[in-house]
């Protein structure tokens, strides 16, 4: 599959490298495709990944992954050109984290809106699936965990798109997805992340993720 990854931070790099390693045709998008740091990474670790502008990467992808800073994601979509997303599957891995009061972060907005919804509203003809935002980059691919391989939480309005994302995440070492509903649920999927930061801080380990422990009702 042709994949455009918007964002050359750690998340963009991890997902680009891993998808290229699974034989996808990956272009990573950034404002500085010729930047020395990215060129060094491409040569050393990003084997098979090409770099382009946000617009070139969005045009390239049948699948476009959003891995941009949460506060800048809508601006990055403007730079990418919203016309490049028509009818495409878009995985939104971003979080609208607010560090203005320091660490740990809050959210820039929530409860009644989310970045996932804002992305879907900006790209009305794209099939936006929120995914990967709830796990640290260290665990996004082939997660090694003490208690088995969990599922990834997803939401989005298009069932077929979520099915494709389920296949993709299984190819990246997850056992599947927990589909919590339409893109409106992104407000709760994003709200998990400030909690995750606090749990990770309490554990003094940022290589942690949430899993669902299921029991059965015991007659009393
Ligand atoms: N770090 C994690 O473990 C993790 C885990 C789950 C989800 N996330 C989410 O994934 C996203 C990426 O996180 P990250 O840690 O890789 O990097 P980040 O520092 O949050 O974002 C880096 C990316 O944002 C772009 N960017 C920053 N300011 C911009 C602006 N004014 N206009 C356009 N683009 C701008 C940068 O573009 P250039 O390439 O042009 O510099 C770069 O590609 C975030 O939304 C984050 O919340 C992160």
Plain-language structure description:
The chain has 220 residues and is α/β, with parallel strands linked by helices. It contains seven helices and ten strands. The strands form two sheets. It has an eight-stranded mixed beta sheet, sandwiched between helices. Strands 6-7 form a two-stranded antiparallel sheet. Strand 6 and strand 7 (106-107) form a beta hairpin. It is globular, with a radius of gyration of 17 Å.
Task: Name the descriptors.
binds NADP nicotinamide-adenine-dinucleotide phosphate; 17% strand; 8-stranded mixed sheet; Rossmann fold
Order of strands across the widest beta sheet? 3-2-1-4-5-8-9-10
Radius of gyration: 17 Å
**How many domains, as an integer?**
1
Q: What is the CATH class name?
A: Alpha Beta
Largest sheet: 8 strands, mixed
- Ligand types: NADP nicotinamide-adenine-dinucleotide phosphate
- What name does CATH use for the topology? Rossmann fold
CATH superfamily: NAD(P)-binding Rossmann-like Domain
Number of strands: 10
Can you tell me the overall shape? globular
Between the first and last Cα atoms, what is the distance in angstroms? Answer: 53 Å
Our estimate of the beta-strand percent is 15-25%
- Named at the architecture level, the CATH assignment is 3-Layer(aba) Sandwich
Average pLDDT metric: 97
Q: What's the helix count?
A: 7
Percent helix: 25-40%
């Amino acid at each position: 599959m042709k994949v455009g990854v918007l964002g050359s931070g750690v998340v963009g790099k991890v997902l680009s490298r891993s998808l290229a390693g699974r034989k996808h045709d990956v272009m990573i998008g950034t404002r500085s495709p010729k930047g020395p740091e990215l060129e060094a990474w491409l040569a050393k670790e990003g084997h098979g990944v090409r770099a382009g502008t946000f617009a070139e990467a969005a045009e390239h992808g049948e699948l476009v992954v959003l891995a941009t800073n949460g506060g800048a994601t809508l601006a990055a979509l403007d730079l990418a050109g919203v016309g490049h997303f028509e009818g495409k599957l878009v995985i939104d891995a971003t979080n609208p984290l607010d560090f203005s009061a320091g660490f740990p972060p809050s959210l820039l907005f929530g409860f009644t809106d989310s970045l996932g919804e804002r992305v879907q509203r900006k790209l009305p003809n794209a099939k936006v699936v929120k995914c990967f935002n709830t796990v640290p980059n260290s665990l996004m691919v082939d997660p090694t965990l003490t208690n088995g391989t969990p599922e990834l939480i997803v939401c989005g309005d298009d069932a077929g798109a979520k099915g494709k994302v389920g296949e993709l995440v299984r190819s990246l070492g997850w056992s599947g997805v927990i589909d919590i509903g339409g893109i409106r649920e992104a407000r709760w999927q994003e709200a998990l992340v400030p909690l995750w930061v606090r749990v990770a801080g309490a554990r003094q380990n940022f290589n942690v993720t949430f899993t669902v422990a299921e029991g059965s009702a015991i007659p009393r």
